[in-house]
Amino acid sequence: MNSRERILAAIRHQEPDRVPIDMGATPSSGISAIAYGRLKKHLGIAGGSNRVYDVVQQLAQPEEEILDRFHIDVVDLGRTFDVNEADWYDVKLFDGSAAQYPAWFHPLASPEGGWRAHAPDGTEIAIQLKNMNFFDQSCFPWLDDYPADMASALPAAMAKVHWAALAHSPWDHAGDPGFWETLRANTLALRESTDRAIMVVVGCNLFEWGTFLRRMDHFLMDLLAEPEQVEELLEALMEIHLRTLEKVCAAVGDIADVCRFGDDLGTDTGPFMAPATYRHLFKKHHTRLCDYVHKHSKMHTFLHSCGSIHALLPDLIEAGFDVINPVQTACRDMDPARLKREFGADVTFWGGGADTRAVLNHGTPASVREDVLDRLRILAPGGGFVFNTIHNILPDVPPENIVAMFEALEEYHTAGS
Question: DSSP assignment of 199-222, as one string?
């Protein structure tokens, strides 16, 4: 099989010739720029670049040499944008290592150290404290109350939320003339140049947008105390999301293989809301999103949701999600064997392959090997599994452990387990 065939077989719950692998195809399956730079140094790779394509989470865009070395089977179509040196400028990360930021991103140094990012009108929207590895949201546009006309007020409010204002490529170019034509041309060229599967990251978050606009504490109360307001917000969001999906499906729906949505629905101990609340407020909208993609493209639907979502998985599967990520197995009710047994025939687990909370970052290469092999033996048989770490590889992960993780994958394949 080639890489694309391998990914698609896994999503169809067919066991491929080897376990397909992702690193860097989404902003929840990537590697921090600091960890990436250290990995390259450990491997003796002196050239190339360390480009921070996701400035909020400070994630690197893996280069072809790394993708080839570790047999990565899927890429984000956003890598076809900002390909010239003029699109980037040199920076120092908080550990002093060299990297590059996209030319459109110029945060301002703060007096106490760290950096602050602003919207075009000067509103501060995000802050990176000294020695912090990400930009944290500092502007919640509807913190005090919902506006009278949410649909009209929503675009301006969204532009002051850092997840949108500091968008990940290619969406930082979405306002450019001819963007959709360029997106299609770039994706066609990518398809012709690689046999890797192609991911398009669309977001279309629902619950999370409520937390971005109102702040987590307020929006969680709104779910129970102001459900009418929440429903009005969701309808306004869906108008925007469906317009976006219409353009995405028309531009690349016949070329890209996977369409990635996001909506963090879980905490360490369970969902943010009761399943009945999810069904009442969110499920119908997730169903509409999945239905649109399935009816208007050949893409598979992928949901990123952190946390313990075992209680919601039957509804998420029924809503039409083909893939779940990052499979946070350290959370309550998220034991990988249980997930595989109960849901392995109905949804593909994209992640759960290495514990980034305790083992990959704090363990030894030997303990990483053991952790990865144990997870492969549980999740890989029968397909329905794409290997990825549990969320992004963060700066505290030693490069030796990253190498040990990929060596364990090769050991598994070689053994024919």
Answer: EEEEE--SHHHHHHHH-HHHHHHH
Q: How many residues does the chain have?
A: 417
Q: Is 115 in a helix, a strand, or coil?
A: strand
Taking every pair of Cα atoms in the chain, the longest distance, rounded to a whole number of angstroms, is 62
Q: Is the Cα torsion angle 199, 79, 164, 243 positive or negative in sign?
A: negative
Nearest of 288, 75, 105 to residue 198 by alpha carbon: 75
Q: What is the 3-state secondary structure (H, E, C) of 309-377?
A: CHHHHHHHHHHCCCEEECCCCCCCCCCHHHHHHHHCCCCEEECCCCCCCCHHHHCCHHHHHHHHHHHHH
Element (H, E) at 297: none
Among the listed residues 407, 104, 414, 29, the one whose alpha carbon sits nearest the alpha carbon of residue 117: 104
Q: Domain locations in the chain?
A: 3-31+70-81+140-415
53: Cβ contacts below 8 Å, ≥ 6 apart: 59, 60, 61, 78, 79, 82, 102, 168, 169
Tokens for 112? 């106490």
Q: Indicate the CATH number of 3-31+70-81+140-415 among 3.20.20.210, 1.10.530.10, 1.10.260.40, 3.30.230.10.
A: 3.20.20.210
Model confidence pLDDT, tens digit, residues 278-319: 999 999 999 999 999 999 999 999 999 999 999 999 999 999
pLDDT of residue 417: 52
Q: Which residues pair with 269 in a beta bridge?
A: none
Q: Do 172 and 104 form a contact (C-beta atoms < 8 A)?
A: yes
| Residue 399: Cβ within 10 Å count | 17
Measured distance CA(75)–CA(45) in Å, rounded: 21
Tell me how many degrees the CA angle 293-295-298 measures, rounded to the nearest 5.
65
Is the overall model pTM greater than 0.85, yes or no?
yes
Cα 284–Cα 278–Cα 320 angle in degrees, nearest 5: 45
